[in-house]
TrEMBL record:
Domain of life according to the entry: Eukaryota
TM helices/strands, residue ranges: none
Higher taxonomy: Eukaryota, Viridiplantae, Streptophyta, Embryophyta, Tracheophyta
NADH:flavin oxidoreductase/NADH oxidase N-terminal domain sequence ranges: 2-130
Family of this protein: Belongs to the NADH:flavin oxidoreductase/NADH oxidase family.
Cofactor: FMN
Gene Ontology MF, one: oxidoreductase activity
Alphabetical UniProt keywords: Flavoprotein, FMN, NADP
Protein name: 12-oxophytodienoate reductase 2, ARABIDOPSIS 12-OXOPHYTODIENOATE REDUCTASE 2
Length: 159
Protein backbone atom coordinates (compact mmCIF):
# COMPACT_ATOMS: atom_id res chain seq x y z
CA UNK A 1 0.00 0.00 0.00
CA UNK A 2 1.40 3.38 -1.04
CA UNK A 3 0.82 5.09 2.33
CA UNK A 4 2.83 2.41 4.12
CA UNK A 5 5.63 2.63 1.55
CA UNK A 6 5.83 6.37 2.24
CA UNK A 7 5.86 5.83 6.02
CA UNK A 8 8.64 3.27 5.67
CA UNK A 9 10.74 5.51 3.43
CA UNK A 10 10.35 8.56 5.66
CA UNK A 11 11.00 6.57 8.86
CA UNK A 12 14.13 5.08 7.33
CA UNK A 13 15.32 8.53 6.31
CA UNK A 14 14.63 10.61 9.42
CA UNK A 15 13.82 8.06 12.12
CA UNK A 16 10.50 6.56 13.14
CA UNK A 17 10.48 8.70 16.29
CA UNK A 18 9.95 11.73 14.02
CA UNK A 19 7.09 10.28 11.97
CA UNK A 20 3.36 10.45 12.53
CA UNK A 21 0.45 9.78 10.22
CA UNK A 22 -3.03 11.26 10.13
CA UNK A 23 -5.73 9.04 8.68
CA UNK A 24 -9.40 9.59 7.93
CA UNK A 25 -10.73 6.09 7.25
CA UNK A 26 -14.34 7.27 7.38
CA UNK A 27 -13.92 10.15 4.93
CA UNK A 28 -16.20 9.74 1.96
CA UNK A 29 -15.99 13.02 0.11
CA UNK A 30 -14.59 13.35 -3.41
CA UNK A 31 -15.08 9.61 -4.00
CA UNK A 32 -12.54 8.74 -1.30
CA UNK A 33 -14.79 6.41 0.70
CA UNK A 34 -14.03 2.79 1.47
CA UNK A 35 -16.54 -0.06 1.55
CA UNK A 36 -15.32 -1.10 5.02
CA UNK A 37 -13.69 1.90 6.72
CA UNK A 38 -13.39 0.21 10.10
CA UNK A 39 -11.45 -2.71 8.64
CA UNK A 40 -9.29 -0.27 6.67
CA UNK A 41 -8.52 1.75 9.80
CA UNK A 42 -7.64 -1.33 11.84
CA UNK A 43 -5.45 -2.66 9.02
CA UNK A 44 -3.58 0.64 8.82
CA UNK A 45 -3.18 0.91 12.60
CA UNK A 46 -1.82 -2.63 12.83
CA UNK A 47 0.45 -2.12 9.81
CA UNK A 48 1.92 1.09 11.24
CA UNK A 49 3.17 -0.82 14.30
CA UNK A 50 5.80 -2.47 12.08
CA UNK A 51 7.51 0.89 11.60
CA UNK A 52 7.41 2.06 15.24
CA UNK A 53 6.25 5.56 14.32
CA UNK A 54 5.64 8.20 16.95
CA UNK A 55 1.90 8.59 16.52
CA UNK A 56 -1.22 7.71 14.59
CA UNK A 57 -3.77 10.51 14.34
CA UNK A 58 -7.27 9.46 13.25
CA UNK A 59 -10.35 11.47 12.42
CA UNK A 60 -13.70 10.37 13.78
CA UNK A 61 -16.62 9.91 11.39
CA UNK A 62 -18.63 12.15 13.72
CA UNK A 63 -16.66 15.18 12.54
CA UNK A 64 -19.14 18.04 12.88
CA UNK A 65 -19.87 20.55 10.16
CA UNK A 66 -22.27 22.45 12.38
CA UNK A 67 -22.76 22.76 16.11
CA UNK A 68 -25.43 20.08 16.36
CA UNK A 69 -25.40 17.72 19.28
CA UNK A 70 -24.28 14.16 18.78
CA UNK A 71 -23.85 10.96 20.70
CA UNK A 72 -20.26 9.93 21.36
CA UNK A 73 -19.32 6.87 19.36
CA UNK A 74 -16.51 4.41 19.90
CA UNK A 75 -15.76 4.23 16.20
CA UNK A 76 -11.98 4.51 16.58
CA UNK A 77 -11.68 2.19 19.57
CA UNK A 78 -10.66 -0.83 17.46
CA UNK A 79 -7.96 1.25 15.81
CA UNK A 80 -6.82 2.61 19.17
CA UNK A 81 -6.44 -0.95 20.44
CA UNK A 82 -4.58 -2.02 17.28
CA UNK A 83 -1.99 0.78 17.31
CA UNK A 84 0.81 0.40 19.87
CA UNK A 85 2.14 3.98 19.85
CA UNK A 86 0.62 7.32 20.76
CA UNK A 87 -2.94 7.57 19.44
CA UNK A 88 -4.51 10.95 18.66
CA UNK A 89 -8.15 11.58 17.73
CA UNK A 90 -9.86 14.52 16.08
CA UNK A 91 -13.33 15.26 14.81
CA UNK A 92 -15.54 17.73 16.60
CA UNK A 93 -14.34 17.21 20.15
CA UNK A 94 -14.91 19.88 22.75
CA UNK A 95 -13.19 20.16 26.12
CA UNK A 96 -15.54 17.83 27.97
CA UNK A 97 -15.77 15.00 25.46
CA UNK A 98 -12.02 15.28 24.77
CA UNK A 99 -11.26 14.88 28.47
CA UNK A 100 -13.72 11.99 28.64
CA UNK A 101 -12.08 10.22 25.68
CA UNK A 102 -8.67 10.44 27.40
CA UNK A 103 -10.07 9.43 30.81
CA UNK A 104 -11.76 6.39 29.25
CA UNK A 105 -8.49 5.45 27.49
CA UNK A 106 -10.05 5.78 24.04
CA UNK A 107 -7.10 7.99 23.06
CA UNK A 108 -3.87 9.43 24.34
CA UNK A 109 -4.40 12.93 22.95
CA UNK A 110 -7.18 14.97 21.33
CA UNK A 111 -6.69 17.43 18.48
CA UNK A 112 -8.92 20.51 18.42
CA UNK A 113 -8.58 21.81 14.86
CA UNK A 114 -11.50 24.20 14.32
CA UNK A 115 -11.59 25.17 17.99
CA UNK A 116 -7.92 26.20 17.85
CA UNK A 117 -8.48 28.04 14.60
CA UNK A 118 -11.23 30.20 16.04
CA UNK A 119 -9.72 30.42 19.53
CA UNK A 120 -5.99 31.10 19.19
CA UNK A 121 -5.49 30.76 22.96
CA UNK A 122 -7.70 27.71 23.40
CA UNK A 123 -5.80 26.17 26.36
CA UNK A 124 -6.28 29.39 28.35
CA UNK A 125 -9.99 29.45 27.47
CA UNK A 126 -10.31 25.82 28.56
CA UNK A 127 -8.46 26.60 31.80
CA UNK A 128 -10.78 29.54 32.59
CA UNK A 129 -13.93 27.91 31.19
CA UNK A 130 -14.16 31.04 29.04
CA UNK A 131 -16.60 31.28 26.14
CA UNK A 132 -15.40 30.02 22.79
CA UNK A 133 -15.53 31.85 19.47
CA UNK A 134 -17.37 29.85 16.82
CA UNK A 135 -15.43 29.06 13.66
CA UNK A 136 -16.63 30.46 10.33
CA UNK A 137 -16.26 27.83 7.61
CA UNK A 138 -17.04 30.49 4.97
CA UNK A 139 -13.65 32.11 5.63
CA UNK A 140 -11.59 28.94 5.17
CA UNK A 141 -9.04 29.00 2.35
CA UNK A 142 -9.69 32.58 1.31
CA UNK A 143 -6.92 34.38 -0.59
CA UNK A 144 -7.34 37.37 1.75
CA UNK A 145 -4.32 37.40 4.12
CA UNK A 146 -6.31 39.06 6.92
CA UNK A 147 -9.81 37.56 6.82
CA UNK A 148 -10.17 34.01 8.02
CA UNK A 149 -7.36 32.21 9.75
CA UNK A 150 -5.75 35.25 11.36
CA UNK A 151 -8.62 37.46 12.46
CA UNK A 152 -10.17 35.52 15.34
CA UNK A 153 -10.05 37.37 18.66
CA UNK A 154 -7.81 36.42 21.54
CA UNK A 155 -9.29 36.15 25.00
CA UNK A 156 -9.11 39.46 26.85
CA UNK A 157 -6.34 39.58 29.42
CA UNK A 158 -7.90 38.72 32.79
CA UNK A 159 -4.88 39.41 34.99
Amino acid sequence: MFALEVVEAVANEIGADRVGLRLSPYADYLDSGDSDPTALGVYMAESLNKYGILYCHMVEPRMKLAEESFEMTESLLHMRKAFKGTFIVAGGYDKDDGNKAVAENRTDLVAFGRLFLSNPNLPKRFELNAPLTKHDRNTYCLPDPVVGYTDYPFLEDTS
